[in-house]
Specification:
The complex is a heterodimer. Chain A has one domain. Chain A has eight helices and no strands. By secondary structure, chain A is mainly α. Helix content of chain A is 71%, strand content 0%. By secondary structure, chain B is of the alpha+beta class. In chain B, helix 2 crosses helix 3. Classes of the chains: A mainly alpha, B alpha+beta.
Amino acid sequence: MNELIVIFIGMALINNFIIVRFLGLCPFFGVSKHLGSALSMGAAVTIVMTISALAAWLIEAYILIPFDIEYMYIVMFILVIATLVQIIELFIKKTNAQLYFAFGIYLPLITTNCAVLGITLINRIEGFSLSGSVVAALGAGAGFTLILAMMSGIREKLETANTPKSMRGLPVAFLIATLLGLAFSGFGGMI
Amino acid sequence: MIPIGALIGIGLVAGLIIYLVYIKVPQKVKGLEKTEELNAILPGTNCGACGKPGCFGYAQALTHDPDLVTKTPCALVLQDAERLEQLEKALGMTLDVEAMHKKALVHCNGNSETIYQYSGVDTCKGAAQLLSGYKRCPYACLGLEDCVKVCPVDAIFTDPEKKIVVVNREKCTGCGLCVAECPLNLIELVPADTKIAFLCSYKPLRDIPGREKCEYACTHCRKCFKACEDEAIEWDKAKAVPQIIQDKCTLCGKCIEVCEQHTLADFTKARKEAELVPTP
């Protein structure tokens, strides 16, 4: 139990995917303009991460290792992730069409999101057990959502400020990401 | 052989799962067709004045609740006869357009003097945080153009002498975006057939603004109330301001002549001074 908590906090805060590992930056800059869509994107990525971490571990344990085809892991993981994103896309398109249009291209981009492939690879490298992998994925998703929420809150407030015209939008977002990175580096070495 | 087999096997299983999800999920969501039909009729400006996040959001809301078009109509559709007709046909409703037309009115005609030099965030919202603005009257328009920036049809402009904003009544579509922007709540949506506008927002009773806050404010002298022969002006004792009953007004103009503070104005004349102000 202790170990699971350590894994969770490690993935969420200390080795945060966006701010410390620099994975999954595409939706970070693309969908972080409104709090609503940022939280929805965070939720979608968390779901994809968790289920793909689970499926990846099962495939690795019961298909790749027994048949001695470990080197196929990257292709298999990508297959799993693509399937999951396709399923989520179907769900979102049919149940909440407005959210689907709000995400735009960023929803299918979760397939190629390095954070999602990243969590499966990191689980493999760290050698986590099944529960460890799932908890790690949940932690990664939680950290991802947290950073997206913070960024969207800051960006919404930034709309009322007098940013120089050439810096509006993406440039100042990069500066904010830098400051967030500085802040989160304070967590370094905690575990 | 084995790796290829494993890959194909997992691929087939994945495909099967997707197919199962696809047939389980409701096929043609009936709402979406109607929504896309309505979305094609809407102007696509995505101004957000209706309160929904863009035209597609409004189309979705209309699909669920067609009555929304009378409660919060799309101001741009109201102005466009062709779109209006298409919308009426699509929703199966007839709309009483005349009753729904609204225009924005800035309730400030003042030339309040500046009491301090403001050099903070260059928006009305920022300036309004400090003592309700840098003019003597706390209900004065600051003229920092928050509303001007937000207007989707460029119907608001700044009067350079008095440093207040004025709405060009002809261009205004009554969408209401400026109403939400103003931090001092000076802008109001009034019916398009309003005849006389009262242009002062000063609220406290004991202070008589005309003598202290600005030269164009209401002094509660009641001359307009006495001058009106059609009984179209009533004196609101609680607020100590004239209340104009637009239906009885015949636009004789006596109240406007009699008011020494120039607080009443003829609303039917569109302020076209925008043509005199150079466009930036």
